[in-house]
What we know:
This protein is of the alpha+beta class. It has helices spanning 3-16, 24-82, 125-129, 148-155, and strands at 83-85, 92-95, 101-103, 109-113, 120-124, 132-134, 141-143.
Amino acid sequence: MNLSEKSAYLKGLMDGLKLNTETNEGKLIASIVDLLQDMTVSISDLEENAIAVSDELDEIEEDLDAIEEYLMDEDDEDDDDEYDEDEDEDDYDFADDDGEDFDYEDEVVYNVTCPNCGKELELDEETILGDSIHCPQCGELLEFDFDEDDEADEEE
Length: 156
């Protein structure tokens, strides 16, 4: 028997006993039965709302799980794109922002602008260490004072 059935049973029992609701005791019992019926309706409404909220929470949890799974799969794909493991475990090829592979064994290229004509030159480390070159555009002598200690200071 649920609450609604029990409340209806008590109401029927009170009616079946033909209690006099004009006496103090009859008024008290009738008020208690009415209160129980009102409480039964309120509790039933609360139970229905709790079930509805629980169902909604279950749906939200499923949606969040799906989103989390999607994001985790996307992160795994991003990790795969970032670097590829070569034959040697300690040697990795990394992708830069443009998606182009960057290998630490590749030659380092420096961009240098001629102060005379403004031409931008791409020079390798060997050329920079050679102390100077002539600008191919204007012939200006470009001198370089490249010291590995200076490079270490710039990194700090």
